[in-house]
Write a structure and sequence with these properties.
about 260 residues, mainly alpha, globular, disordered C terminus
């Protein structure tokens, strides 16, 4: 019977532990339940809200990762279009604040054009990241074959590939993509004539390349060191800042030329 009694006691304790996770925690001093000593404060409430938000953020990250792995192209396009639109919204708000303009209706047509540009831009940059990875690897191999054995060493290979990718993007990819997509598409969607595009490209491209080098050189150090499948996503995280710069550049050019911005 003592054995049965001990066993019954053990089962009871385990059952209690499962039903109440705090059953075996040391008791703490609890203040009387009085409004003046109530432990709930604004800081406690904010920490509770933050803890409740963490599972939501984690679940959203898992869902995005799943979509990126199983539906890569649609996910990249949707993300690019969304962030381009958000970038234009921020640009319009900052333009009004900087110029101390009266509150005017948001130019939905301009935002829509930028979002449409972002749908195709995500595909273009996704393809470029794959090309840049191949070209940088070939450059390292070529340097090693020519006697620079250090180019193939693990200590320097990552650095060389990052520098080469950034250089290839700045001096090859950006002039081509800006001239054929980033500048013409918003202009054409905004009502510009095709014959005006070469003039617009020559006018905007030099300053845009300078802004790109200032902003993206730092970002690209991170982007070209993440796995290939996540590079567009990493780029999109930084892209909202760039879309603000690009939107302002194109909009200021329109203001200089005199066309009236389209309203929604």
């Amino acid at each position: 019977r003592p054995a049965h009694s001990s066993l019954a006691s053990a089962v009871a304790l385990v059952s209690l532990a499962f039903n109440d996770a705090n059953a075996f925690t040391p008791p703490t001093h609890v203040l009387p339940h009085h409004p003046a000593h109530h432990p709930t404060t604004k800081a406690t409430a904010s920490r509770t809200t933050a803890r409740q938000a963490i599972p939501v953020i984690t679940e959203a990250a898992h869902m995005y990762s799943y979509a990126l792995s199983n539906y890569q192209i649609p996910t990249q396009c949707a993300t690019g279009g969304l962030l381009c639109g958000v970038g234009d919204v921020v640009a319009q708000k900052s333009e009004q604040a900087k110029e101390k303009m009266e509150r005017v209706a948001h130019d939905i047509a301009r935002t829509k054009h930028f979002a449409m540009k972002g749908l195709g831009g995500a595909l273009i940059w996704s393809a470029w990241y794959k090309i840049a990875d191949v070209l940088s690897a070939e450059m390292c191999t070529e340097m090693a074959d020519r006697g620079a054995a250090w180019a193939a060493s693990p200590e320097f290979e990552g650095v060389i590939r990052t520098i080469s990718c950034i250089g290839l993007e700045q001096f090859i990819a950006c002039p081509i993509i800006f001239s054929l997509w980033e500048i013409p598409v918003p202009k054409l969607l905004g009502g510009a004539e095709p014959r005006e595009i070469p003039v617009e490209v020559r006018k905007i491209l030099p300053s845009l390349l300078v802004d790109n080098a200032k902003l993206w050189t730092f970002f690209n150090v991170m982007i070209y060191n993440v796995p290939m499948e996540f590079r567009v996503f990493a780029s999109n995280l930084c892209d909202i800042v760039w879309q603000v710069v690009l939107s302002k550049s194109l909009a200021s050019d329109e203001d200089d030329d005199g066309p009236v911005k389209q309203a929604a």
